[in-house]
Amino acid sequence: MKMTYGTAIREALLKELEDDKSVVLFGEDIQHNLYGYTDNLVNIFGKKRVINTPLSEAAIVGTAVGAAMCGLTTIVDLTVANFLYVAMDQIANMAAKTNYMYNGQFKLPLTIMVSTLYNSSSAAQHSDRPHPIFMNTPGLKIVVPSCPQDAYSLLRSAIVDENPVIYFSDRSLFYTKEDVDVNCNIKIGQASVLTEGSDITVVTISGCSKIAMDLLPELINENISAEIIDVRSLVPLDINTIKKSVRKTGRVVIADTAHKSCSAASEISSILAEDLFYDLKAPIGIVAYDDVPVPFAKNLELQIMPTKEKIYQKVVNIMQFNK
Amino acid sequence: MNKNISRIESVIKDTLKINPERADETQKFIDMENSEKISLLRKMIRIRRFEEKVTNYKLDGKILGPVHTCVGQEAVNVGVCSALSDHDYIVGNHRSHGYMIAKGAKINLLMAEIFGKSTGTNGGKGGSMHVSDISIGSLGASGIVGSGLPVACGAAFASQYKNDGKITCVFFGDGASNEGTFHECMNLASIWKLPIIFLLENNGVAVTTLLKGVSASLDLYHRAQSYGISSKQIDGQNVEEVYYTVKSAIASIKEGKGAVLIEAKTCRFHEHQEGHAYLRMSDVGYRDKQEVNYWIANKDPIKLFSNKLIAEDIIATSEIEHIYAEENHNIENAIAYADISSFPSNEDAYSNVFIK
């Protein structure tokens, strides 16, 4: 079935709500969502399962934690990724630590959904891609789907997972469209090799995967055989797939939508430097947001964000490096 | 001397100025059986003895990390948890040993957890601040002030959704009443009519910060009114009053009237935490020592209830002494159990980050 990324999210929610009556969906504007990914769900499942909440992020996330501890499967939509910060204590101190500090007495089937809105003139407080903050918070799974199929399958996997999962949808991909196999199950923690190659590995996170794939014809033109990998989830991270590729190519560029310092890209880079030092033929390249808050003016955001041109240039540079 | 005592009495009277209509609800209930009353006394004594042991072992360096005891506040723990049924949920905070014991936790496992042993309620991964035991309805304890309230709302939501008849009670203090979660959760519980009791233990002090310096009102139960939640202020040193008020709240919730806030006025006899560093804080003058001593002498919940039961001929002094002896023995056993238990294996550090 052909569907957009946004529709894929809706279809996944619909399917899980249908399959299991213990699934409830909390959210801000969830009954009448502007972006359509909860369209009509309230009419199908009722206000007791598709619940409009007050703008009380801490209370909502904590409520979803408590309800999950007591046998429900909870989904919270906080909409914009920056709103995670408002609920930070409940996410970092409660959701992330419940399994561990109570030593497995509870299951915590909780999914927190947010969208990242970068490159959309949303300015500093609505444009963050804060997945690295949560990578440094043990106890949370993190998924970053980059195509409709992954958006669908990974959301379903997140919902049925008995651990807290933060699901970062990428708003820049919302209207991408492709065939989605609704029976395709993707486990959290499996990277995807989007295209095989032998010269260089390009590891991508979230929306960077589409940018890298758009770049492919130009790379082929330059006679560069790139292996593009989409991590799909950051916790757990499928580092083996990445390592296998880098062992083969000896060169790697990592493209991340996050700010560069302590990013997913820098973490992957650190692992590769630690474990594959002798396999590397060149320094590891990183393309990410520069370390400044996201500016409003279009040209300023383009200046600091990972673009097609920047990834291309980085790949070319790494390819040209000789020891 | 007399002038001083009368000054303190007037301060106490002021601190303990409690809503005069509060006693009415208790008339709805048939008096407890004498055996139940004795059971309340026994539980308070068990908690007191447990906490005194914990205090000593912390001073001796046998217990590591932050440890908060509830000495002086036992009537709240026992009155509330005795009114709840076994399957009802409780959500605790940093000062949670008392609720756990009152709800029926096995003291051996609780002590082992506080000692950081593999046999503890949390396998040694939680410690004093995070004691948890789902088998007695405990949904854990959070050391972050105010952060248990949202989780409790979730438990209450689950009960309402499943219609399982359970009540959730969340314990927090006057310090937490200034957290945003308190206000968010009062509103949420009210609009969703959640089956939840907000149990506010107002001991008038958050670590060393007095409530009167940081709150516009000393009567925190008033705050519930703006959220449309029924609330009551009670004497937290009177275990029967706590018990009957919670019974009444449960009845009201079961009638479908939604969440209730109970503000129990009480006193923290010890410092915020146990240990030498905090012991020194008792001399820095952040609160009136004479006032605390007055509470200890005149408002000790165990002394008050013992005297009442003796006066009513429900129990003899010798029987109370017998209870003390038995509970002492039980606590000694718990210490021995915790002491001989092994620490978790190093590999355990990596388990249960995620449930498989």
Q: What characteristics describe this protein?
A:
heterodimer, A: 323 residues, alpha/beta, Rossmann fold, 7-stranded mixed β-sheet, 5-stranded mixed β-sheet, 14 strands, B: 356 residues, 6-stranded parallel β-sheet, two-stranded antiparallel ribbon, 8 strands
3D architecture notes:
By secondary structure, chain A is of the alpha/beta class. Chain A has helices spanning 5-19, 41-45, 57-69, 88-101, 131-135, 148-160, 208-221, 239-249, 264-275, 298-304, 308-320, and strands at 2-4, 23-27, 50-52, 73-80, 110-116, 141-143, 165-170, 177-179, 192-195, 200-204, 226-230, 233-235, 252-259, 285-289. Chain A has a seven-stranded mixed sheet with strand order 3-2-4-5-7-6-12, sandwiched between helices. A five-stranded mixed sheet of chain A has the order 9-11-10-13-14, with helices on both faces. A two-stranded antiparallel ribbon of chain A has the order 1-8. In chain A, helix 3 packs parallel to helix 4 (88-101). The longest helix of chain A is centred in the N-terminal third of the chain and has 15 residues, at 5-19. The mean pLDDT of chain A is 97. Chain B has a single domain, classed as 3-Layer(aba) Sandwich (Rossmann fold), CATH 3.40.50.970. Chain B is 47% helix and 10% strand. Chain B contains 14 helices and eight strands. In chain B, helix 2 packs across helix 3. The longest helix of chain B is centred in the N-terminal third of the chain and has 26 residues, at 34-59. The mean pLDDT of chain B is 93. Chain A binds chain B through residues 24, 48, 53-54, 56, 58-72, 74, 89-90, 93-94, 98-108, 138-139, 141, 162-163, and chain B through 89, 91, 122-123, 125-126, 130, 132-134, 139-140, 142, 144, 147, 149-159, 161-162, 168, 180-181, 184-185, 187-188, 191, 351-355.
